[in-house]
């Protein structure tokens, strides 16, 4: 007699490649694998980077990104999608156009704008397209404070109350849920706030003493995507994703990758 085993969920990341392996497509696929979902990828750009700098960015053409999307969805049932580095207005528009025709797939948007080394990863004209075309399709958006400030054209908040007010403003752009990351807030804590349009949930976090935090934003958004694909509610997905990324940061110094901002340990629960 055969035993019916649950099928593993399929998730897709649409993002840039990090040659150093700590962020972007590589971080997404590592997080997906560590959390028990199957990861597919659409690559929007190639980068030459390590833990200290981004030496170059080579964009993939929007036509080839569209071809990657069409080919994947023609064959693979995708349960959740996460976007990361998109780069240009045309790329954002092309991705939004495709995803607008996809039903029953929860979309997680990590609005990647600036690398940890200070390089711009999203052009200024792409922000308007992101707001107009992609945000309205989004189940949860996961900006840090500089990214949220850029989306809204306002100053970064300096308090929890300011973060709450900012989360409401981001939600008003048309997204269903906002996970606002407070790592740039000054002080000993690094709080995140989830706002679903009605309720605020705060996730207080004590800062972890390590320089190895490259890819934390990508990894957190990917973890949320993985848990959503497995059927979790937004609150449960974010709660579990926060636990995962916190443990990955705590275990980051077990790795020995580069002399700059190294990656988190995606496989802390396995290795």
What are the SSEs and their pairings?
Layout: E1 10-18, H1 24-34, E2 38-49, E3 54-59, H2 62-75, E4 80-83, H3 89-99, E5 106-109, H4 124-134, E6 140-141, H5 145-152, H6 160-171, E7 177-181, E8 192-195, E9 200-203, H7 216-229, H8 234-250
Helix pairs in contact: 1-7, 2-3, 3-4, 5-6, 7-8
Would you kindly provide a written description of the structure presented here, covering whatever features stand out?
This protein is of the alpha/beta class. The chain has helices at residues 24-34, 62-75, 89-99, 124-134, 145-152, 160-171, 216-229, 234-250; strands at 10-18, 38-49, 54-59, 80-83, 106-109, 140-141, 177-181, 192-195, 200-203. 36% of the residues lie in helices and 18% in strands. Helix 4 (124-134) links the parallel strand 5 and strand 6 (140-141). It is globular, with a radius of gyration of 17 Å. The protein starts with 9 loop residues before the first strand and ends in a 21-residue tail after the last helix. 45% of the residues are buried. The model has no long low-confidence stretch (mean pLDDT 93).
Beta-strand fraction estimate = 15-25%
Helix content: 25-40%
SS field, number of helical segments: 8
- The whole-angstrom Rg is 17 Å
Mean pLDDT over all positions? 93
Structural class: alpha/beta
Terminal-residue CA separation: 35 Å
Run of helices and strands: EHEEHEHEHEHHEEEHH
Number of strands: 9
